[in-house]
Design a protein that fits this description.
With about 270 residues, the chain is an alpha+beta fold. The chain has eight helices and ten strands. Strands 5-4-3-7-6 form a five-stranded antiparallel beta sheet. Strands 8-9-10 form a three-stranded antiparallel beta sheet. Helix 5 runs antiparallel to helix 6.
């Protein structure tokens, strides 16, 4: 399942959601009063403005805690799209549930509490769907533009030529487009970018025969079975067992192990 871009875990994007969602909620309700929400917010001796401010602060608090949790856990979690959408739905539902506390009290027994709670969740979902969708699409457009801007224009000086064990030319690719090289039995996997997509080319060869060429073109050994292009490393992290992993800047690329022997060499290039 495709994971979301790592940009969603970065503070500028997190701040955008923290500010954007409650601001949209406040201005949208104030300007348009959708779903006859003004009647709902006028409970409690007609305190429409006060109730609107309280609900907006609740959205701000829930979204702030939720997005900051994403930031804190950025090295430990890697959400795919269904899980991220479920996370957004959780923000909506939790916001609505917290709103139902003051609004349920505000009804003063005129309206059943659980009915007020369901209305809070529905109102919140109907209003926050728009900014969540707009901000998410905006971030995705930025990610796609960034990936398109990285389209590699081959330079003859940086081209890597891969030959099989019979000395036959099998692949020509820019060294900048290579993500990593992985050895597996009598083959190596040349994982590289091609028109914005990750391609895996299987070459019948040994890592030993490629080592000198790879080092000459800027790739670094990070494991006995891997050579890595440090230019594509987004971050280094450690898993639950304490092993170092390199996370690449391309969606869908797997995490590359970095052994203790080569850890310093890799970090020196970042």
């Amino acid at each position: 399942m495709k994971t979301i871009s790592r940009i969603y875990y970065r503070m500028p994007v997190i701040t955008m959601f923290i500010v954007g969602l409650p601001l949209f909620f406040f201005l949208f309700v104030l300007a348009y009063r959708p779903f006859r929400i003004d009647e709902f917010l006028s409970v409690g001796a007609g305190r429409y403005t006060l109730n609107l401010i309280v609900c907006t602060l609740i959205v701000l608090g829930v979204v702030s805690l939720s997005r900051m949790l994403l930031f804190v856990l950025r090295r430990k979690i890697d959400l795919n799209w269904p899980l991220y959408l479920l996370w957004c739905l959780g923000e909506i539902v939790v916001s609505g549930l917290f709103m139902s506390i003051p609004m349920g009290i505000g009804w003063g027994g005129v309206h059943p509490y659980f009915s007020a709670m369901s209305l809070c969740v529905l109102y919140t979902a109907g209003i926050l769907f728009f900014p969540l969708a707009i901000l998410t699409m905006g971030v995705q457009l930025y990610v796609l533009e960034k990936q398109a801007g990285r389209a590699v224009i081959p330079d003859e000086k940086t081209l890597l030529r891969f030959y099989d064990d019979q000395k036959r030319l099998k692949l020509v690719v820019s060294s900048e487009a290579v993500l990593y090289i992985e050895a597996e039995d009598n083959y190596v996997h040349v994982v590289h970018m091609d028109n914005g997509r990750i391609k895996d080319f299987n070459l019948r060869s040994s890592m030993r025969s490629l080592e000198e060429t790879l080092q000459r073109n800027g790739l670094v050994r990070c494991h006995r079975s891997f050579f890595l292009n440090a230019a594509h490393v987004a971050l280094l992290k450690k898993d639950a067992n304490g092993y170092a992993l390199a996370q690449l800047d391309q969606e869908g690329a797997k995490e590359i192990p970095v052994s203790k022997r080569y850890y310093q060499a890799v970090t020196a290039l970042l």
